[in-house]
Amino acid sequence: MNQPFVIIVILNWNGIEDTLACLDSIIKLTYPNFHVMVVDNGSTDDSLVRLDMYHPCYPITLLKTGVNLGYAEGNNVGIRYALQKDADFILLLNNDTIVAPDFLDHLTLAAKQNPATGVFGATLFYMDKPDIVWFAGAKWNSQTLTFDYPYKGQKLPEVIDRVTDYACGAALFFRAQVAQSVGLLDARFFLVWEESDWCLRAVRAGYGCMMVPSSYVWHKVGASFESESSPLREYFSYRNRLLWAEKNLSKKDLLHLIKDSFRAFYPKFRATKIENIPYAKSLVWAINEWKITWFSPVLQAKRTGLIDYLFRNFGDCPDSIRELNNR
Fold this sequence. Notes:
- This protein folds into two domains: 6-219, Spore Coat Polysaccharide Biosynthesis Protein SpsA, Chain A, CATH 3.90.550; 231-326, no CATH class.
- α2 links the parallel β2 (34-40) and β3 (60-64).
- It is built from eleven helices and eleven strands.
- It is 40% helix and 20% strand.
- It is α/β, with parallel strands linked by helices.
- It is globular and about 80 Å long.
- The mean pLDDT is 92.
- α7 (231-248) runs antiparallel to α8 and α7 (231-248) packs parallel to α10.
């Protein structure tokens, strides 16, 4: 066992079917020196019963938080455990992923070949489109004030730029010393934007961040939110983008994003004259269309996200957002 010791942290919250499928793929790993830890984030389904009954060919550790701490703090529980167990490397792996048998070999080899780099990311493909890239690197766009994803939606090219501004949290691999140096994920994010914030902290502390194109993971995109454009996702995206900007951008750029957020919340009112239709009727139609847009669940979630950012309400979302999502 002269290979570096890796602890894999898998966060489960009411997603036992996905978690068991992920564990079944880990059974096939060719890398010899790893330990799996499942952090149950306060599940209310039968996750704990079924995890207690799950007996793979290797031991797993099950930690129970008792409450939903979110992605950030739930994974922090696992990172603290891994540091206590003297792990050389820590892998944060989404429970809704399936991994290639050799994906961990490629990550550890990249770490060996790049000793000055501290953070590594696997290539993520869509689960339902297994040859199409979901994440293979990110580049900050200072003009649009957001990240660009150059390979998303494409087949993986033969040559890929390994340099990335952050590695996706669905398969985030890093040296334990990075967490010891820069600390844990910022729990205020709860979900979304936390891994990019953490990776930037690591880069600023002198640890590089790079992609490992040959390390393959398939991801059931949107499983945490039911949809990538759901009210739940939009709430966290809007609120946390501003928190991220506050931490990592200039005050001028932050103010610009806040102004853009306000503008996005007011749907355009279009009352154009339609041929052979009385103007009064066209006006009524326009008003109804505006009202439908204004009260749409997604727009309500975005407005709440902005308000919660301004009033410093971080962590989990309000119950009203989950109600909008359930609609």
